[in-house]
Amino acid sequence: MGTTSTDDAQAGEREDLLAIVADQRTNFRYAVGDISDQQAGLSTTVSELTLGGLVKHLGDVQRTWIAVVDGTAPGEVGWADLDPDGNRMTEGETLAGLLDAFHAAAADFDRTVRQEPDLDRLVTLPRYPWSPPEPITWTVRHVLLHVFREIAHHCGHADIIREALDGASTTARMAEAASRGADAEGNDAEGADAESGGGSDIGGG
Asked: What is the spatial distance between Cα 205 and Cα 191, in angstroms, rounded to a whole number?
């Protein structure tokens, strides 16, 4: 009976985790699809969150964690270093542009994780104003799971904002697109599968 090396086991785990992250990104893209720039900038709840702002934020989130994994993140981030418009779709920004940045960040994040030789490697997180005084270290695996949680968290926000905007349901949009053989951007299903790992309705709302 054959044995499985640690490297082989991590490779399988890595691809499983990346596939789940890709599925969650797909759900998010359905929630923000087929709307105008004007709609993307609308706040439909008592919160100031908008669909465009969430796209922007999740692109930035993935870039931030790439820097943590590759060791280029700053050691400390103060209040003055935080972008006050990091969660807002500002004047002159377009949904298409924000989605392009989101997709580019996703591709770079996945590439960084695939090139990481050891998911158990510890990385030190930057210290933020709300961080505890002692340094925090996570494994690369923990970072990957955290990014999944972050995207899933904001998928719920996006679902609520979108339903209040025009009544659209992420799950219904996914089912309708599947019947047409299309993905969240209206592309054919073969192209969608290549990026998302199949686009299954994991966590669809």
From this structure: 23
Could you give the count of Cα atoms lying within 13 Å of 115 in the half-sphere of its Cβ?
9
Q: What share of the chain is helix, strand, coil (3-state, %, to 5)?
A: 60, 5, 35
Question: Is-contact 52 37, C-beta < 8 A?
Answer: yes
Q: What is the value of pTM for the model shown?
A: 0.85
Q: How far apart are CA 205 and CA 198, in angstroms?
A: 17
Give the 3-state secondary structure of residue 82: coil
- Tens of pLDDT, residue by residue, the chain (205 residues): 555 566 777 889 999 999 999 999 999 999 999 999 999 999 999 999 999 999 999 999 999 999 999 999 999 999 999 999 999 999 999 999 999 999 999 999 999 999 999 999 999 999 999 999 999 999 999 999 999 999 999 999 999 999 999 999 999 998 998 998 888 777 764 444 434 444 443 333 3
Return the DSSP state at 76.
B
What spatial distance separates the first Cα and last Cα of the chain, rounded to whole Å? 43
Q: How far apart are CA 171 and CA 86, in angstroms?
A: 28
Identify whether the C-beta of residue 150 lies closer than 8 Å to the C-beta of residue 166.
no
